[in-house]
Specification:
Elements (H helix, E strand, L loop, with lengths): L1 E6 L4 H13 L2 E7 L11 E4 L10 H4 L4 E4 L11 H25 L3 E4 L25 H19 L4 E2 L1
Parallel strand pairs: 1-2, 1-4, 2-3, 4-5, 5-6
Length: about 160
């Protein structure tokens, strides 16, 4: 049975993902938790990682893991302050890069990164966005998620880690 680590497991998307993955019976689901709390439904293991950033220690969380689903992110803060901009960068860009590098070192086969459509921009005049569109992130959140995508892709390109 494959072991999957889900970041953001106590959030809306991560929690639903833990439940769905657990229900398949094909995965041992490990929930990466920011703070102590109940293990999300569907997860059979949990590990405390604290705040996600450039210094997060992923060692215990990644032990024996085949797949990482990175759903954790800093989002929904509309203060527009310089400190908040740096907070987005710390979690969504530097933290995602730190996770990818640790996953590559730990021998994780695949990292699935949940980014945001906002990387493509705020509007699409010619129809739906597509994977071939040039990124046009606007604002701290979208920019930090785009930088996270780039960091993960760069780490995957130099290792056996497959980034999705």
């Amino acid at each position: 049975m494959s072991r999957v680590l889900v970041t953001g497991a106590s959030g809306f998307v991560g929690g639903a993902l833990c439940a769905a993955l657990g229900a398949t019976g094909a995965y041992t689901v490990r929930a990466a938790m920011r703070r102590a709390g109940p293990t999300p439904a569907g997860a059979t293991e949990s590990v405390l990682v604290g705040d996600i950033g450039a210094a997060t220690d992923w060692g215990a969380a990644l032990e024996g893991v085949d797949l990482v689903v990175h759903a954790a992110a800093r989002a929904h803060d509309l203060s527009r302050s310089a400190a908040e901009h740096d907070g987005y960068l710390e979690t969504n860009a530097r933290g995602s890069g730190r996770l990818a590098a640790a996953a590559a070192r730990a021998g994780v086969r695949r990292l699935l990164y949940l980014s945001t459509i906002k990387v493509n921009g705020e509007t699409s005049a010619d129809g739906a966005f597509s994977a071939s569109d040039a990124p046009r992130p606007r604002g701290s959140y979208a920019t930090s998620k785009w930088l996270g995508e780039q960091s993960i892709a760069e780490i995957a390109a130099g290792s056996a880690l497959e980034a999705v």
